[in-house]
Amino acid sequence: MVFDRRMKALQVRELTNEEYEALQTSLRSPSSFTVRRCQILLMSAEEGLKAVEIGRRLRCSDQSVRAALHAFESEGLACLGEKSRARHSQQASFDPAGREWLKSVIRQSARSFGSDRSLWTLELLAELAHQQGYSEQQVTPETVGRALAREGIDWKRVKKRINSPDAHSAGKKSAVTG
Questions:
Q1: Which of 13, 47, 53, 98 could form a disulfide with 134 if both were Cys (CB 3.0 to 4.6 A apart)?
Q2: Where exactly are the structural domains of the chain?
Q3: Confidence (pTM)
């Protein structure tokens, strides 16, 4: 038994009169994104062109043509508007208590929290915040940096101002440095 493994060409379903009129009207949109989507959909519906052929004619990638066709199939005419490119999953931010906790933690050595290094990194702070329950999910280092910036703390300055848990550290530093 021989199977034909060629994929079926992706094309727009038959348009309703309302959809056709909306696409024709949207060809005059000030948004180039909307105009391009309309051109793609109309070429597919009226001429039955494949994604590669439409891409060649419009001088765009066949993948962007496929994306437009899939978007129309799932969203209908709503696919004509450009969507936000922002991240879909919201990054958890620190509440005021979490930011206060961060301010107190960064003034201490990372070793006092079980780290094998003495200086904090944003990655270490993100991990610790999750372990201590100050963030529901693992946050990115950028989120920690933004939380510190919201508190007026310059991350580069913080690294140089770590207080040692050793009560005699001030004397040791002055003895060594003179």
A1: 98
A2: 17-80, 96-163
A3: 0.49
